[in-house]
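Recap quiz, item 2
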Amino acid sequence: MFAAVLCTAILGCATPQAPAEAGRGHSAAHQADEQAILDLEQRVFDAQISGDLDAWLGLFADDAIVMVPNLPALTGKAAIRKWNAPYFEQFHLHEESDEREVEVAGDWAYIRAHWTWTLTPKSGGEPVIDTGNSIWILRRQSDGSWKIARGIYNSDRPVPGGE
Amino acid sequence: MKTDHEAEARALMQLSREWSDLVSAGNLEAGMEFWAEDAVMLPPGLPVLSGKGAIREYVTGAAEIPGFRIRWEPESAHISGSGDMAFMIERNVIEVDGEDGKKVSTHNKVVTVWRKDSKGHWKNVVDMWNEAPPRTD
């Protein structure tokens, strides 16, 4: 439960990208979009590593909605900031992702990934580690860049009372 | 042909409601027609279910849980500029029989991704959810 709630609006990290993930027979423009989305994921990861909440929030659209497990959806940047600020303040954040799938649909796109994150308390103590899946819907901006518009994730940990 | 995105969004939301009606009535086989062959489902606490066969196995197993019933309602649909991809924000409610015989309900937030097939029919390609508090509105 603790880990599931801690699993905040964090995109999977981008380790160096395998070329195969950035385009599967698509046009050069399509492949450029896919790479830009993987680069966005990298910036999310970098902001988490550096603990820069403002830089991290700058990667979200103003009307972004993040669906945190076991809570109402976080609607808008202010709500996303409020929820995540304690984690940026209290933990060193690290995340990795794999099994990524990027699909571009013109003005929006999504990235699906399996994530592994580690939250290490700045005050000391054992890190909290969790894994799970995520989908992030990205919206193309007027300057051609991408921002996070919607996100949902869940944990691999068994659901209480589930299978 | 130019896509009327608002009309397409309304049609897709209606399609999702019809799908919910079928499945909540126990018509699982008809419900399978809404999935693409390469669809993926991402349930909480389980590995990714890749492909219609894995999804069929999962939903068939769920339907065997005593008292199982699922229904859902789309909240918004967003059609791509090209008109052949879409995503929806939805909510679902899953009911099962509790140990005391009373219904136990789980409310979930849902994101689904849809793609038009070669015949122009919308098919679900991604389905993911996590638990939400019950709505009060």
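The CA atoms of residues 36 and 146 of chain A lie 8 Å apart.
Helices of chain A lie at 2-6, 28-50, 53-57, 77-90.
End of item.
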